[in-house]
Amino acid sequence: MSNLIFENISPWESTSKYILNFPEIRFVGVINNMGNLVTSKYKKGIIPIAEVEQYKMCMEHALELFMKKDLDDVLGPLDYIVSKRKNIKIITIPVNDYLVLISAESNTKIEPIIDEILKKIKDMQHDVKIKTHGVN
């Protein structure tokens, strides 16, 4: 799979808007394998609970887990990680060499939303793959 998904931000713009349409979702960002924020958006009207730099600190733990693929052969690849804090839930989804970081309200029943987000990301990957291979 090409890394063009996030290097070419256009497909991601549509996907992040889709994700932010869930009422419970507050923030969407993409972090590369160097820990740098590639793109991010807050839902309109949301006051951030934490600064983006603080989200990146949370991501260090997720990045460490993402990079440790020791159990992939036995348990399968990592689909996502959810961290629940008193004021927020943080969802981390590995996509190629990137991590998608999503924050949601702390009382959110997140599993159904994650399923929808994973489907949208998979569709985006498929669309980008077709476009990068010259098929329209």
Question: Care to give the gist of this entry?
Answer:
By secondary structure, the chain is an alpha+beta fold.
- Please state the structural category: alpha+beta
**Overall morphology:** globular
Provide the helix percentage. Answer: 40-55%
Q: How many domains?
A: 1
Rg, nearest Å: 15 Å
- Which homologous superfamily in CATH is the superfamily? Dynein light chain 2a, cytoplasmic
Topology, number of strands: 5
What letter string, H or E per element, gives the SSE order?
Answer: HHEEHHEEEH
By CATH reckoning, the class would read Alpha Beta
For the largest beta-sheet, the strand count, sense and barrel status come to:
5 strands, antiparallel
How large is the count of helical segments?
5
| Beta-strand content estimate | 25-35%
Distance between the ends: 17 Å
| Named CATH topology | Beta-Lactamase
Strand ordering within the main sheet: 2-1-5-4-3
Low-confidence stretches: 1-5
CATH architecture: 2-Layer Sandwich
Mean of pLDDT: 78
How would you sum up this structure, described in words?
This protein is of the alpha+beta class and about 140 residues long. It has one domain (about 5-130): Dynein light chain 2a, cytoplasmic (Beta-Lactamase, 2-Layer Sandwich). It has helices at about 5, 10-20, 50-65, 70-75, 110-130; strands at about 25-30, 35-40, 80-85, 90-95, 100-105. Strands 2-1-5-4-3 form a five-stranded antiparallel β-sheet, sandwiched between helices. Strand 1 and strand 2 (about 35-40) form a beta hairpin. Helix 2 (about 10-20) runs antiparallel to helix 5. The radius of gyration is 15 Å and the shape is globular.
